[in-house]
Amino acid sequence: MRFTSIACALLALAVACTAKPPGEDGRVRGLHEISRAQRHVFMKGWTGDWSGHESDQEKGLPAPPIEKPWPPDAVLVDLVDADSLVSGVMPLQEAIGRRRSRRSFTDGALTREELSYLLWSTQGISRIVRGEDGTVRRHYRTVPSGGARHPFETYLLVNRVDGIPPGLYRYLAVEHRLLFLRDVDRPVDEMADICRGQRFVGEGAAVFIWAAVPYRTEWRYSFVAHRDILMEAGHICQNLYLATESIGGGTCAILGYDQEGLDRFIGVDGDEEFAVYLAPVGRIER
Fold it and tell me: Count of H helices and E strands in the chain?
């Protein structure tokens, strides 16, 4: 069975726990609607033998694309090639020791090279394996992913980056380029509205927003995919923390946001794709 959202997965787990699903239409709309025990089942993934449940991969269905398409007339912004990056030379031990959540940013801008480095550090592709027909069979990024499925898309609110106009973008990991989506007139106010009054979010030089495309992982792991997806968000954001510290900047992971508002801001449907995590990045006083 294919689940199109974490909410649907939680519903299935609620049924598995022999609890009646809430709501007249039987849909679970929030974690508050299910019991503590059912939430624990979600964290575990599954408490029984799930090996007999066929995934779409085992059924022979084609794998979903590793990247969303874009219009042929889209505006693309070149980034600094990964092989040419010189940012982030701080020793790893020092970056780990300095890691903190930073909520105060200066008016300083990031360089295009620094932003390229942060994008590569969090979702950059290190190797692609292609079939004889040229199609991508498997790809590896700078963060771990169960089955190398990599279910996340990176959206980027650019406020102050040298050589890149402000606006909302999507990172094209295979091409290592930015896809321009739209202008944002009031980034600080909009982020404050979405993030429950946290104005510092929109004051960063850039804001990283990660959205999950669950079926990329569901295709292989069916109903146990969702725990893995959420763990991977942590891998990505920790890389951002360390990479940002290594360039003398700072970031702060944000989970306090309005789900529908953030989905609407980045232009996703909230079902087949939805926001999971975000983090502003900026210069800090040392």
Answer: 8, 9
